[in-house]
Here is the input.
Amino acid sequence: MKIDPDNPADLSAQIAAAIRDAIISGGLIVDERLPSEAELAEQFDVSRPTVREALKRLAAQSLIRTQRGATGGAFVNRLSFEAAQPQQITTSTLLLSMNAVSFETACEARYALERACAPLAAARRTPDHLATMRAEIHRQSQPGLTDEAFCASDVAFHRALVDGAGNPVLSYQLAGAVEAMQPLMNMITFTARDRARIIALHTDIADAVEAGDGATTLAALTALETETQDLAQSVFAARAARS
Amino acid sequence: MKIDPDNPADLSAQIAAAIRDAIISGGLIVDERLPSEAELAEQFDVSRPTVREALKRLAAQSLIRTQRGATGGAFVNRLSFEAAQPQQITTSTLLLSMNAVSFETACEARYALERACAPLAAARRTPDHLATMRAEIHRQSQPGLTDEAFCASDVAFHRALVDGAGNPVLSYQLAGAVEAMQPLMNMITFTARDRARIIALHTDIADAVEAGDGATTLAALTALETETQDLAQSVFAARAARS
DNA sequence: GGGTTCTAATTGTCTGGCATTTGAATCGCA
DNA sequence: TGCGATTCAAATGCCAGACAATTAGAACCC
Here is the structure.
């Protein structure tokens, strides 16, 4: 971990990579304290600001945390699913917005992944998950809801479904896919009829999940995907025709 | 974006958050040049090293890139799927290793997600994907292959399957789930008989994908998951009994 | 006109220092 | 002896100033 050739590239990036590798390989374990900035500077033969830049890089990825004071320093962070999800969501959102991913492609990925969770959710969901889904359906049926609020509730509904699978790995992965769709969904205007159809399908999903019926859940999700794709297509077509 | 109260938390983190928000909200567009470090320092009323720490945080997330020289500076980066995948893999791997996720849970998530890609891969795979899958199967059947090399080939095979779906969003999400399993798979020893069974199932998958048969692909994937879970269970049970 | 040199702008890095926080040791006092 | 207040030391957070390295463009000369 000490190696650091006097090569061309950024020293702080090299140092950050060395420490990151040490963490990944198990050379540094969770909650272990790293040497102080001054000691690291001496080890790598660089100045303290350079070490600090390296540590900030790692902090940005939640790999370490810092603490001030006498017994302070940089500590290897336990990367929790809760901490990783916001980053995953941010990255996924930016990937979609910066790469001109079509609504169709993003929607397809989202529903394909969500269907992967459906049978598990039907088998394992707790009453809490079901209650959240019902509550979001109720919110979606409120009149006067803005399109954005409707989409936000839609996201909450689907995240409850995913969480119902009781698998943190799935919840983490899906968080990105589901949340990242929200900006795309916000480009769509929902008529009252559109909302009614979506709410009906949401109710179908909740019913199937409550009954523990994975196959029916799958079918309802597929129907919802078709509905969403059709809706988006008509909205975009109308917008293209108007301009 | 200029706001930055003299509050408690790290200035560099606040500045990084401000710039990140500007990028996410569209206030800064791709390839746009940020003000120079000196200008940012003046804008936020902090010193240049503090600004630099903030920029390094953003660079660690691939949100910006820096360039030296006369027309250099920090530029908003186009976050590509290729650049985001390694980070996703690192994060997923650490999440599994630091949170005592059981083999069963991780394996379940991986195959659930992979099944989500199967029908699409069967419909859209190119000859390239198919050739990669066949090549990896061939490699797996080589005698004298170490367990680690066998696992690495397994990962390559499954990534080719996922990429066959032709959906970058899926490929990105699945990269984390598939690669992160590798350290867990490396804890397993494979007998010749185990390998033969896995290779046979891989062949079934490749055949089904070649035939464009999504349902058969799904069935083969499910059989492979069962095989993998059983194998892991017996290995862990034997290990527990021996100690 | 083309090639060369110069210049300015910008990032990368270092030195040295001060402020702030925080835990622990020390001291004073009952 | 026991306990609270004080002091101290270590560490991070932040800053000012400076120099080196790099790079693109301008100026210049032939």
Summary: The longest helix of chain B spans residues 214-242.
